[in-house]
């Protein structure tokens, strides 16, 4: 997802808020190199709503394949819409090794190159359940978070709409509706379980929750324009069609899902 100016201007959250961390988060924080995420999470917990059942499209598929080795080739490059890898099934990661960490680090490099604040592995053509993000973007390096095999446990707080961009859709932005709050269970790059509450009533928490939901959608094969209301989709439709035509010309014979078309059943990507 793309960066936004107001996020860059935010001040870091103070360590005084550490006391409000849940025991799980406290353990995760003490062993985690990326402290900023947990600081924001604590802040997000202020005004956090009671949660409701997880909507079907946010439930991790039970039949997700598992990979014991994540295969990828450096240097990574962003995959643009409508590349079928953005719609393929993403595998659960069951090994936490140097290769996984190297992949996450290269994803962060690519994310910063394009001035992003979040990136999911299928966006670099690697169909596994991995995402990286830094709500402050490249202006605050070292504040990145890596989430492996994230699952949405609950959502709440109603919905709100804001402008989104996506690194796989160069030049296109439009409003998308998201849940305000989301409870997440995931693993870090070492395989440690982390529990996160993203959202709350302040801008930083809501922004972090939005970034997570955008990247999580990528792991579900859902793209941001899938969630747009007709009025939001209309202005970017010509841009989507242009990307489709460009891809079709460069990859004749490759089956793509065009805007407005019903999704084909997702298939496992070649390469794992
Ligand atoms: Zn995206």
From TrEMBL:
<dbReference type="InterPro" id="IPR023635">
    <property type="entry name" value="Peptide_deformylase"/>
</dbReference>
<comment type="similarity">
    <text>Belongs to the polypeptide deformylase family.</text>
</comment>
<keyword id="KW-0150">Chloroplast</keyword>
<dbReference type="GO" id="GO:0006412">
    <property type="term" value="P:translation"/>
</dbReference>
<dbReference type="InterPro" id="IPR036821">
    <property type="entry name" value="Peptide_deformylase_sf"/>
</dbReference>
<keyword id="KW-0408">Iron</keyword>
<dbReference type="GO" id="GO:0042586">
    <property type="term" value="F:peptide deformylase activity"/>
</dbReference>
<keyword id="KW-0479">Metal-binding</keyword>
<keyword id="KW-0809">Transit peptide</keyword>
<dbReference type="GO" id="GO:0046872">
    <property type="term" value="F:metal ion binding"/>
</dbReference>
<keyword id="KW-0648">Protein biosynthesis</keyword>
<comment type="function">
    <text>Removes the formyl group from the N-terminal Met of newly synthesized proteins.</text>
</comment>
<dbReference type="GO" id="GO:0009507">
    <property type="term" value="C:chloroplast"/>
</dbReference>
<dbReference type="Pfam" id="PF01327">
    <property type="entry name" value="Pep_deformylase"/>
</dbReference>
<protein>
    <recommendedName>
        <fullName>Peptide deformylase</fullName>
        <ecNumber>3.5.1.88</ecNumber>
    </recommendedName>
</protein>
<keyword id="KW-0934">Plastid</keyword>
<keyword id="KW-0378">Hydrolase</keyword>
């Amino acid at each position: 997802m793309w960066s936004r100016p107001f996020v860059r201007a935010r001040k870091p959250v103070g360590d005084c808020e550490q006391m409000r961390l849940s025991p799980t988060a406290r353990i995760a924080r003490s062993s985690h190199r990326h402290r900023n995420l947990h600081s924001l999470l604590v802040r997000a917990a202020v005004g956090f709503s009671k949660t409701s059942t997880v909507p079907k499209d946010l439930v991790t598929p039970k039949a997700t394949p598992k990979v014991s080795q994540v295969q990828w080739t450096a240097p990574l490059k962003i995959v643009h819409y409508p590349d079928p890898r953005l719609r393929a099934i993403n595998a659960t990661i069951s090994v936490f090794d140097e290769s996984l960490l190297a992949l996450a680090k290269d994803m962060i490099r690519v994310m910063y190159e394009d001035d992003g604040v979040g990136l999911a592995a299928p966006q670099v053509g690697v169909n596994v359940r991995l995402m990286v993000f830094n709500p402050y973007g490249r202006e605050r390096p070292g504040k990145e978070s890596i989430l492996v095999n994230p699952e949405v446990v609950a959502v709440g707080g109603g919905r709100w709409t804001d402008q989104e961009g996506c690194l796989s859709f160069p030049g296109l932005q439009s409003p998308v509706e998201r849940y305000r709050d989301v409870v997440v269970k995931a693993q870090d790059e070492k395989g440690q379980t982390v529990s996160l509450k993203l959202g709350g009533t302040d801008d930083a928490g809501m922004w972090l929750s939005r970034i997570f939901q955008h990247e999580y959608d990528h792991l579900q094969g859902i793209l941001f324009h899938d969630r747009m209301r007709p009025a939001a989709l209309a202005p970017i439709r010509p841009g989507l069609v242009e990307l489709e035509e460009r891809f079709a010309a460069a990859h004749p014979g490759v089956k793509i899902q065009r805007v407005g078309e019903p999704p084909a059943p997702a298939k496992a990507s070649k390469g794992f």
